[in-house]
Write a sequence for this structure.
């Protein structure tokens, strides 16, 4: 039971985070529709919380508290479809019509339930073996089931219409993912929350879990297929939060499975759960730092390969901090795996390690014109002699976006390569471009 409670709570929180992330990062013109998605997610979460609250009530809980939880289960189960029609049918007359009909049905059924709860159930059972509601299989419950069925079928039909009349193939895929998830969630809710509760009330949590999963899948589809344009700065933060919450869910599921298998105990103590909660929070907070350190050591250790992604990311960060070019040279030497790298900017040289290169050598190298179309120099006799004297393997130009020279970069001997392979050259061209930005920014 503890696993179910934690799972329902974390999944509902994750669904809310997904909705808020999409709303907060969307463009101004998309905000009204995204607000409907947030309300839909809140409706699903209210359904989840109501079920979780009822199932977690102790046997000593008051009947009024249990009744409020039951009202929450069956009223929110209808109310969330109002916002589903508003979101899915946005911009379509049929969507507005179904939203009005769904609102009317929700208000009518809610009034009848609050006015006379005996229409839905004949009793509420609270016990240590599991809480349940003794449902009355009469006209009210049948009408309730019929309304949910008609609404869910209508939602799928509106989605099919929307998919058919959407011109973008990517957006079509996004809505298709949402529709498949909605069908799975609706079918699960129909089985576990409508058909089985009269005989098996303990499985009522399965339907909401599937619906929350559909909300999360829709968040993924919105990002993956650009269903809406989300600001990149907001997207980074929100995606990390959603990913962190998803990681926490996976962790707790694995923890309960392993704990139960090892210790033959179905419910760990609250202290054990709290300890694991603290540990998973710490692990999530440390994940960026661990990832950064891991990338650093992998880039250093792979002497036969160039970790282009890490190098470019690091140079981009350095560009915003006004770095010392000697530090840039040292970084490049370490991660491009050269014994020596020097950067010449405005006739001054910034080296990874001290060498015997003097001002006269710098002047000789700087005065050489590059006859090649690429940044790499084709050494003439004069430059070749200078390179041999200084133990250099390559010299390349650092060019800005206009193709103008902003500096030179000197390469010593590679740590474990005799010369540049074709793949290395293509990667190094990218590094040269990023280094040029750093040098040009420093000069300005």
């Amino acid at each position: 039971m503890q696993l179910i409670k934690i799972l329902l709570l974390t999944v509902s929180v994750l669904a809310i985070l997904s909705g808020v992330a999409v709303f907060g990062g969307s463009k101004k013109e998309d905000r009204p529709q995204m607000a409907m998605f947030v309300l839909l997610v809140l409706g699903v979460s209210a359904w989840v919380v109501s079920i979780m609250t009822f199932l977690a009530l102790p046997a000593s809980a008051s009947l009024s508290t249990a009744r409020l939880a039951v009202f929450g289960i069956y009223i929110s189960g209808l109310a969330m479809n109002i916002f589903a029609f508003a979101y899915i049918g946005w911009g379509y007359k049929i969507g507005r019509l179904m939203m009005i009909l769904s609102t009317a049905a929700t208000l009518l059924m809610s009034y009848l339930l609050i006015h006379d709860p005996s229409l839905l159930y004949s009793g509420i059972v609270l016990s240590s073996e599991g809480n349940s509601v003794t449902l009355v299989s009469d006209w009210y419950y049948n009408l309730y089931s019929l309304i949910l069925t008609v609404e869910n079928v209508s939602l799928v039909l509106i989605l099919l219409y929307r998919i058919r009349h959407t011109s973008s193939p990517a957006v079509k895929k996004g809505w298709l993912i949402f529709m498949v998830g909605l069908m799975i969630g609706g079918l699960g809710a129909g089985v576990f929350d409508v058909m089985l509760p009269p005989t098996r009330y303990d499985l009522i949590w399965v339907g909401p879990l599937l619906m929350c999963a559909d909300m999360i899948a829709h968040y993924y589809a919105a990002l993956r297929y650009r269903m809406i344009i989300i600001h990149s700065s907001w997207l980074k933060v929100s995606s990390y939060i959603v990913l962190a919450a998803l990681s926490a869910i996976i962790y707790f599921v694995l923890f309960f499975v392993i704990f139960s298998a090892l210790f033959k105990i179905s419910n760990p103590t609250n202290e054990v759960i709290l300890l694991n909660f603290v540990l998973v929070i710490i692990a999530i907070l440390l994940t960026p730092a661990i990832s950064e350190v891991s990338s650093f050591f992998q880039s250093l250790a792979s002497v036969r390969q160039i970790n282009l992604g890490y190098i470019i990311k690091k140079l981009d960060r350095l560009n915003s901090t006004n770095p010392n070019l000697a530090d840039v040279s040292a970084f490049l030497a370490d991660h491009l795996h050269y014994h020596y790298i020097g950067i010449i900017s405005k006739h001054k040289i910034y080296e990874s390690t001290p060498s015997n290169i003097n001002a006269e050598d710098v002047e000789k190298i700087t005065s050489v014109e590059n006859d090649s179309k690429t940044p790499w120099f084709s050494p003439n006799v004069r430059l070749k002699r200078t390179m041999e004297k200084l133990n250099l393997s390559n010299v390349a130009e650092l060019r800005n976006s206009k193709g103008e020279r902003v500096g030179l970069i000197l390469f010593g001997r590679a740590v474990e390569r005799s010369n540049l392979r074709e793949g290395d050259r293509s990667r190094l061209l990218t590094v040269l471009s990023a280094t040029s930005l750093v040098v040009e920014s420093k000069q300005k």
Observations:
- The chain has a mean pLDDT of 81.
- The CA atoms of residues 257 and 263 lie 10 Å apart.
- The two ends are 63 Å apart (CA to CA).
- Strands lie at 121-125, 132-135, 341-345, 348-351, 394-399, 405-411.
